[in-house]
Amino acid sequence: MTQPPLRPRKTAMLVAQRIVADIHERGNTVGERLPPERVMLDEYAVGRGTLRESLRFLELQGVISLRPGPGGGPVVEQPDASSLATALTLLLQFENAPFRTIAEARTGLEPMMAQLAAERIDDESLGQLKLSVDTMYDQLDDQHVFLAENKRFHDIIAHGSGNAMFGYLVDALLGILDGSAIGIDYPKVRRTAVHKAHLRIYEAIATRDPQASSTAMAHHIEEYVKYAERKFPDILAAPITWTHLT
Fold it and tell me: Given this model, what pLDDT does residue 6 score?
């Protein structure tokens, strides 16, 4: 069977890739300005429209910001997981995937993250993990603090795993499956149970026990899914849409 011809990559995308490569080659850091437009036009030998399309794409990906006015122009930024969350949300929306998809992904991924964190997390991050557990306990009556600390706890473990992909994945997954955005509520009794689970996970990681950390995290996520299935089955069955993204 004849294969369809490969689509050539757009010039704007190729230029965007060259700009990123040059950022790394020059060693530009966050907050540094890139060369002005007139220099980039000559350097990349493209028209103004193509260059601006490239820069706009990089801005949407969080690689740069475009500051207006004299002395403005493209400035290097640190990308975060928001672009990944948007891309995943759109892919899942067009697959008509339900929110349960995210819960199931966490069930598979987060125990491995906890296992790796027990082996690799540094003392500073371990201290931040303990602070998150303590802050959640001290302010259990405040659901906004609870949600913030719940996300921070899982973020610290993901990044503490030493695997950069896990860090961005958890950021993205929690950005999609955020209880405050889709309607999952956490009464005081549930918040208390989550705190106890976080404390068990922290203690396992602090003792550098990979198996206990994995087991504690697996139990925690399984309990979350059971709670959501029991109390909010319609929400988990609802299709993921971009409008829910926080």
Answer: 42
Q: What residues make up the domain containing 48? A: 11-76
Secondary structure letter of residue 189 according to DSSP: H
Region 197-205 average pLDDT: 98
Number of domains in the chain: 2
Q: How far apart (Å, rounded) are the C-alpha atoms in residues 178 and 190?
A: 16
Q: Which of 87, 15, 28 is nearest to 54 (CA)?
A: 15
- 158 and 175 part of one domain: yes
Q: What is the pLDDT of residues 220-245, one digit of tens each?
A: 999 999 999 999 899 889 998 887 66
Question: Are residues 86 and 69 part of one domain?
Answer: no
Last residue of a domain, one of 76, 110, 129: 76
pTM of the complete model: 0.82
Clarify whether residues 25 and 103 are in a common domain.
no
Q: What is the DSSP code (8-state) at residue 243?
A: G
Average pLDDT (123-147) is 96
Tell me the β-bridge partners of 90. none
Q: Which residues pair with 76 in a beta bridge?
A: 64
Q: Please tell me the total number of residues recorded for the chain in this structure.
A: 246
What are the φ and ψ backbone dihedral angles of 239, each rounded to 5 degrees?
Answer: -70, 140
Domain match, 139 and 72 both: no
Helix extents (H) in the chain: 11-26, 37-44, 48-60, 82-94, 100-120, 123-138, 143-160, 164-176, 179-182, 188-206, 210-231, 233-237
DSSP tag of 2: P
Of the listed ranges 27-41, 64-78, 103-117, 124-138, the one predicted with least confidence: 64-78
| Radius of gyration of the CA atoms of the chain, in A | 22
